[in-house]
Amino acid sequence: MNKGDFLFRGIWREDEIEIVWRPELLRDTTPQIEAEIARRWEVLLSTKRYVFDGRLCRLIGYSAGAGGVVMTAGPTSYREYHGTNPRADIEDSQRANPLAVCCGVHTSDSKVVVLRRSAGLPESAQRWHVIGGHVEADTHVKDNRVLPFQAMRDELKEELGLDAARILDMRCIGLTRPEDTLKPELMFYARVNAKARDLRGDWEHDAMQGLQAERDALLHFARKYPMASSGRACLEAYAGILE
């Protein structure tokens, strides 16, 4: 799988994204890799508070075009992600590569919401990010299809308290796989029926801002402030749509 801020970009509706669930397609591994996963996990548990080994969806392949996006996914876990993705000494087929989602939330008062991640989190602590999270195998797989839009709606509910009824429009705008995490992440925008000042972040965040929903304002923030790599890519992708 390739890597970079933008593996593909566009604008797709929910019915134009298909992710086929293939539970038999496991990552390649060796006893040495599994031992290193166990060692790194124990170190993480000893140093970070908010750690959970959830069952996730591993992105295996994809194609994208004007007519839609087709992907294939199999099983993995957060523990496998932590123990494989940062490593430069293994093959990409041996990495967990869990699929994640992130979203530029455009409020009714023309703001785009960004939040600063809390210090105790295992990833991107004290960096700014848009709303995001993982696609979970237990809740976002149905009838052998993976449901990334549902995963994104769940994150908006969990992190901002936004019910599905307040989401006026949501589109997928691309896929990023940053160099630092190698985690594939589908990028979205969502226009919501809520003002930025009325939103409150959850326990994962210690600050929130509403950026002016204009191209230059989003690009300025993305390039000046410390951000999670996928959050920066999402702001830049959405800024391109606002041109």
Describe the structure.
This protein has 243 residues and is an alpha+beta fold. The chain has one domain: Nucleoside Triphosphate Pyrophosphohydrolase, CATH 3.90.79. It has helices at 31-47, 78-84, 148-160, 215-224, 229-241; strands at 4-12, 17-21, 55-65, 68-77, 100-106, 111-117, 128-129, 131-134, 141-142, 145-146, 167-177, 185-192, 205-212. Strand 3 (55-65) and strand 4 (68-77) form a beta hairpin. The two termini are 30 Å apart. The mean pLDDT is 95.
Helix-strand string: EEHEEHEEEEEEHEEEHH
CATH class: Alpha Beta
* Helix content estimate: 10-25%
CATH topology: Nucleoside Triphosphate Pyrophosphohydrolase
Shape-level CATH architecture: Alpha-Beta Complex
- How many structurally independent domains? 1
For the largest beta-sheet, the strand count, sense and barrel status come to:
5 strands, mixed
Strand order of the largest sheet: 1-11-12-5-8
Radius of gyration: 17 Å
Query: What's the end-to-end separation, in Å?
Result: 30 Å
